[in-house]
Amino acid sequence: MNKTTPPNEQCVDIEFDKQHLWHPYTSMNNALPTYGVVSAEGVELKLANGVKIVDGTSSWWACVHGYSHPKIVAAIQQQAQQLSHVMFGGITHRPAVELARMLIDMTSKRLTKVFLADSGSIAVEVSIKMALQYWQGKNQPNKQKILTVKSGYHGDTFAAMSVCDPEGGMHTMFGELVTQQLFAPAPNSAFSESFDPQELSTLKQMFKDNHQQIAAVLIEPIMQGAGGMRFYHPEYLVALRTLCDQYDVLLILDEIATGFGRTGKLFAYEHANIEADILCLGKALTGGYVSLAATMCSDKVAKGVSDSPAGVFMHGPTFMGNPLACAAAIASLELINQQQWQAQVANIEAQMKLELAAAKHYQNVVDVRVLGAVGVLEMNATVNTAELQQQFVKLGVWIRPFANFIYIMPPYTITNIQLTRLTDAMKVVASQISLPNNDAAFVSHG
């Protein structure tokens, strides 16, 4: 006899979910409410009660083309009929080769090697391993530290946790198991304001004092996502690239959240016209349809890794280079290469700037900021995520606040009318919100 009785296929058993399923950053003692979704199309989610709501999050920033896109769905279906999965050890296949070719063509010239991983967090793990093995191959095994900045977020696995914000991240919960890294102050000059070179003083001193042990610098270019939805000045990245070259340190750019057009450039590093030694990609890579990430590196890094004592790169996930995921990614990148995203993101940015401007005058709003297809209301205190989610659903939208931020990162395919529903809902809730409250939910990156 079964321990549980399955419900009708068209229903979502919320009570079973509440009793048995973990959700991100929730307690099994006092879980946040969940909403059953039975289907999705375009930029709308259909709830179990038949109500359709506009998705303002792109399912954590990934579904840039919207849901049920015929091109991506067809690519997955066709690939499933041919080859759903095969081990990548000693075997290759067309989707992996073609995807690697596309990524090399799309990114900066020095990035010529591609490691296909499972998720964003693993892409970051892989990048850190690459940096450490590179210096082993250069006979400098003492270079084992990663320099990063405060207010960053790079994933939930252990090496990724070690480079997340040391105060707002997860470091204190796991003690000595989390490697102690080096943290510079967060970039301070805002994207749209003048750059203050004085903010580099501590960073420069850290390079000078610690470069002999620093393997790499790891940073989210232009936008710090889950660490505070902060947009910083491109000149900071220019200076960082210069310091890495001056002190012989690798530069790792985490474009998992920003890659493929989100900030108005194909990749956020293009705002600064720099190149990474190692690049992490994920989320929108497959259009959000299948979990896949990529870590790319230069010939120099690949040679150093291969010259290390191990002689090989020490990582190999079971589902590395999964054909279904690669097929979805190829279809997603073909849509990106049609260049429609440029006009779409520009239109989203202009509309959000216009429609969110009024919120600057709300009592509880500290700041309103927009960059590309990212719109943020920073509140003056932590919000009640469960309460606000309920209000947003009643208003016909899906917006998931965290900490003291109400933000949207909608699919690029959103219409003007649908986007207005999102911005109107943000303003309604922000204007009526009762603060402070300490019930916060962290937002995932990986």
UniProtKB/TrEMBL annotation:
The keyword Cytoplasm applies. It is found in: Cytoplasm. It is an enzyme of class 2 (transferase). Its cofactor is pyridoxal 5'-phosphate. It catalyses: (8S)-8-amino-7-oxononanoate + S-adenosyl-L-methionine = S-adenosyl-4-methylsulfanyl-2-oxobutanoate + (7R,8S)-7,8-diammoniononanoate. Pathway: Cofactor biosynthesis; biotin biosynthesis; 7,8-diaminononanoate from 8-amino-7-oxononanoate (SAM route): step 1/1. Gene3D superfamilies: Aspartate Aminotransferase, domain 1, Type I PLP-dependent aspartate aminotransferase-like (Major domain). The keyword Lipid biosynthesis does not apply. GO terms for molecular function: adenosylmethionine-8-amino-7-oxononanoate transaminase activity. The modification N6-(pyridoxal phosphate)lysine is found at K283. Substrate binds at W60, Y153, K283, G316, R400. The record marks Y25 as: Participates in the substrate recognition with KAPA and in a stacking interaction with the adenine ring of SAM. Keywords: Aminotransferase, Biotin biosynthesis, Cytoplasm, Pyridoxal phosphate, S-adenosyl-L-methionine, Transferase. Pyridoxal 5'-phosphate binds at G120, S121, D254, P317, T318. Its main location: cytoplasm. Its EC number is 2.6.1.62. InterPro entries: Aminotrans_3, Aminotrans_3_PPA_site, BioA, PyrdxlP-dep_Trfase, PyrdxlP-dep_Trfase_major, PyrdxlP-dep_Trfase_small. Belongs to the class-III pyridoxal-phosphate-dependent aminotransferase family. BioA subfamily. Catalyzes the transfer of the alpha-amino group from S-adenosyl-L-methionine (SAM) to 7-keto-8-aminopelargonic acid (KAPA) to form 7,8-diaminopelargonic acid (DAPA). It is the only aminotransferase known to utilize SAM as an amino donor. NCBIfam families: bioA (TIGR00508), PRK05964.1 (NF004624), PRK07986.1 (NF005940). Homodimer. This is Adenosylmethionine-8-amino-7-oxononanoate aminotransferase. It comes from Shewanella youngdeokensis. The lineage of its organism: Bacteria, Pseudomonadati, Pseudomonadota, Gammaproteobacteria, Alteromonadales.
